[in-house]
Model the fold of this input.
Amino acid sequence: MSLHVKEDFLQLDYIQDHTIYDEKRYFEEESGEPFDKHSAKQMLLMMNRVAYDLRLDEYSMKKLEIVLREELPFFAVNRRLVLNWINENFLF
Done:
């Protein structure tokens, strides 16, 4: 069972993003858009999607947040590349 987290779960500081995101559109139609790792809403969307794909627990989700924020490779600049890289390379 995967964990679905909300903003109070996040450990790091983020900017408030007032954009309303549709998850399906975010990962499909807008997958070529940049991933803003400083936006709380975008971080939650990415974390929840990865948690669902990989069936992560709470500890792994906290580790995932740090990896998404601090350890993404230089080439993972858009949403699709970030999601693909994390799903293939995240060790939990």
DSSP finds four helices and no strands in the chain.
